[in-house]
């Protein structure tokens, strides 16, 4: 099959709201297509298909197992509550389905290891749903960070992911239910912040993680808001630190600021760009205070990066490209994506452990 003719046939398991975004991404991606949708009832699957404009154009099933048993389904996108990930992800991998798993990947690293082992032993690709990693802006920022002549050594990273929610969300949303998504804001929003600092540090794990006492939980013990700090000590190439803040209780923010010895990068919308077709960030090099400290000698340069497809479509496209290489050319699954997810999960676990220990530092 020619590369231009290949289409990875996806099944979606679960009709969460985010699945609508991925269904659209699959329709925009030349090497992927949405083939089947499964929910706990056939009526709900049919309702989802109609909602995304694919009524009658996709298979609809009234159970998750039916999607996984369909021999025409090559891969599954799994946006179920986190507590259900390990079971259905392992079943999907055992049926030789490539796995695109919504974040957070699991409740802890032990669960994720079960998922990754199932994918490894069955020769299928694993990737989590961190869409921002696939945006060309992300690659452009990494190119600048990697050029020590421009950026120097990274000294500090700051990241936030916050959103204002209404009382109904705080009462009924699955992300505040301990039996469905026990990680709360840590899993939903903190995953992005942790992923961003690790990305900036080339996935070098911090030596120490510490949650701060400003942590807020709901009556069921689910995390609603938290700040945490990270340190790379003397064992690192350079001593550096990072701070993250994630919250369901603050106005929307998606900040990423990276400070080096020669420059700084700042993106206000690193998780979801303000616009689909173009995204920017501020780059400041050589900034100093003006005479008498009455201003600056320059303003940051705004760097803009065009994007032909939405970042979620680029994620699906990359996932499908890897799957084609496995099926058509006998390639091995790309180990980069499982490694990124596992390191993110390990640091997430350390934040939670620090909270559980009364905000004591946790060594990694």
From TrEMBL:
Limits of the Gfo/Idh/MocA-like oxidoreductase N-terminal domain: 8-127
Record lineage: Eukaryota, Viridiplantae, Streptophyta, Embryophyta, Tracheophyta
Entry-linked InterPro entries: Gfo/Idh/MocA-like_OxRdtase_N (IPR000683), NAD(P)-bd_dom_sf (IPR036291)
UniProt protein name: Gfo/Idh/MocA-like oxidoreductase N-terminal domain-containing protein
SUPFAM superfamilies documented for this protein: Glyceraldehyde-3-phosphate dehydrogenase-like, C-terminal domain (SSF55347), NAD(P)-binding Rossmann-fold domains (SSF51735)
GO molecular function, one term: nucleotide binding
């Amino acid at each position: 099959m020619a590369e231009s003719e290949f289409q990875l046939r996806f099944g979606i398991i679960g009709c969460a709201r985010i699945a609508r975004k991925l269904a659209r991404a699959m329709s925009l991606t030349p090497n992927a297509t949405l083939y089947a949708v499964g929910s706990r009832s056939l009526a709900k699957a049919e309702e989802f298909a109609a909602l995304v404009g694919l009524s009658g154009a996709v298979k609809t099933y009234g159970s998750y197992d039916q999607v996984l048993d369909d021999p025409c389904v090559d891969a599954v996108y799994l946006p179920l509550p986190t507590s259900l990930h390990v079971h259905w992800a392992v079943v999907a991998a055992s049926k030789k389905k490539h796995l695109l798993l919504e974040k957070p990947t699991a409740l802890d690293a032990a669960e994720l290891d079960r998922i990754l082992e199932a994918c490894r032993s069955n020769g299928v690709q694993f990737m989590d749903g961190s869409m921002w990693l696939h945006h060309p802006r992300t690659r452009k920022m990494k190119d600048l960070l990697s050029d020590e002549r421009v950026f120097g050594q990274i000294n500090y990273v700051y990241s936030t992911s916050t959103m204002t929610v209404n009382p109904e969300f705080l009462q009924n949303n699955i992300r505040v239910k301990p039996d469905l998504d026990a990680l709360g804001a840590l899993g939903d929003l903190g995953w992005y912040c942790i992923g961003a600092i690790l990305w900036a540090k080339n996935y070098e794990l911090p030596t120490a993680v510490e949650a701060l006492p400003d942590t807020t939980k709901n009556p069921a013990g689910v995390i609603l808001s938290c700040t945490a700090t990270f340190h790379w000590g003397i064992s690192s190439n350079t001593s550096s630190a990072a701070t993250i803040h994630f919250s369901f209780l603050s106005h929307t923010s998606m900040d990423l600021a990276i400070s080096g010895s020669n420059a700084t990068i700042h993106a206000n919308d690193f998780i979801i760009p303000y616009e689909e077709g173009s995204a920017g960030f501020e780059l400041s090099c050589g900034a100093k205070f003006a005479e008498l400290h009455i201003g600056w000698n320059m303003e940051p340069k705004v760097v803009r990066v065009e994007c032909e497809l939405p970042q979620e479509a680029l994620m699906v496209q990359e996932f499908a490209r890897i799957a084609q290489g496995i099926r058509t050319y006998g390639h091995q699954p790309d180990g980069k994506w499982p490694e990124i997810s596992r390191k993110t999960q390990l640091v997430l676990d350390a934040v939670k452990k620090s909270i559980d220990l009364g905000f004591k530092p946790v060594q990694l």
